[in-house]
Amino acid sequence: MTTTYHIPVLLNESVNALVHDPDGTYVDLTFGGGGHSRAILDRLSEKGRLISFDRDQHALNNCIDDPRFTLVNHNFRYMRQFLEYMNCTPIQGILGDLGISSYQIDFNDRGFAHRSDGPLDMRMDIQSPLTAAKILQTYSEKQLLDVFNHYGEIKNAFKLVKTILQNRNGLSFSTVEHFKTAIEACIPKNESAKYLSQVFQALRIEVNQELTDLKQVLYDSEFVLGAGGKLVIISYHSLEDRLVKNYLNSGNFDGKKQTDMYGWSSQPFDCKPSKAITPNPEELERNKRSRSAKLRIGVRTTFQTTSNHSENKPEIHGNSPVKSSAKSKK
Ligand SMILES: C[S@@+](CC[C@H](N)C(=O)[O-])C[C@H]1O[C@@H](n2cnc3c(N)ncnc32)[C@H](O)[C@@H]1O
């Protein structure tokens, strides 16, 4: 299914891998335009159920009218709490199509794209307090260096941060164009698009705490997926893909396999196939935005409600919204 909101990537490859029991309960972590969710519903029986998440209020406009479907307007980092509150664990599969939708990139008020002007915002959830402009205005030198080094892998991060600190004079970072003008001296002439993409990626990851949320949901998937349940994740850059690959291969974010005192491996997932699936030439031709996509599939080995990997547990900051406002928008 194609919508103008977003063209779903690796649609058949991901949904075919995900749905193995048409009567089962599934989660789509990243509803967006609903392309993957619709394809999942097409494969479910009348007994099947789909719970989708999206933190962006605009995605609610794409809600699907189907009694088997629930759309939750919240961060997917709270997936486990929602599923337990809704009393529907264990589930049979989780799909995540990470990053942002075409709608979010193309809608200029959001500031996600360096090619079009707009407020330097970059929030997926417009109710969250942190914007990209606020980061540039308020973060310390060390915090900015961490953001650009770790999330953008920017070669001249030190020069960039120095330039940002020198330009903190109120208006410089309020719009995409102001920011680009302020850092002009740092942008390599022959690879300006690549450089700006890395800078914008770093800011976007920090604004939305994307890697923290991803770690949390990977970790929690162990507790909600039944044995044989599928974890199907599409990622778009190496920082995301490394976390997914390591977790599926070892149950750890650093990729080191663990064994118990008898030497048995305690991996929560079998990674099948072991290599990532990428878009075929036809999809690449049809949808240029699919070019960096990597699909990885894990099969849950057992079902458990406590972890062998508690040292992996990521910190959740802020209160879970579930106790106070577990409303499904339908
Ligand atoms: C690449 S789009 C998904 C597109 C969707 N698969 C489709 O077919 O239309 C990613 C979506 O996930 C949402 N998203 C990203 N991170 C999220 C998070 N931590 N919690 C909830 N939604 C998130 C974004 O707002 C965006 O709408």
Topology:
Blueprint: H1 11-18, E1 25-28, H2 35-43, E2 49-53, E3 69-72, H3 79-85, E4 91-97, H4 102-106, H5 132-138, H6 141-152, H7 157-166, H8 176-182, H9 192-208, H10 210-224, E5 225-235, H11 238-250, E6 269-271, H12 281-286, E7 294-300, H13 322-325
Helix pairs in contact: 1-2, 3-10, 6-7, 6-9, 10-11
Concise structural overview:
This protein is of the alpha/beta class.
Architecture overview:
This protein is an alpha/beta fold and 330 residues long. The protein has 2 domains: 207 residues, Vaccinia Virus protein VP39 (Rossmann fold, 3-Layer(aba) Sandwich), CATH 3.40.50.150; 105 residues, Putative methyltransferase TM0872, insert domain (DNA polymerase, domain 1). 36% of the residues lie in helices and 12% in strands. Strands 3-2-1-4-5-7-6 form a 7-stranded mixed sheet, sandwiched between helices. It is globular. It starts with 10 loop residues before the first helix and ends in a 5-residue tail after the last helix. The C terminus is likely disordered. Bound molecules: S-adenosylmethionine. The site of S-adenosylmethionine has 22 residues, from helix 2.
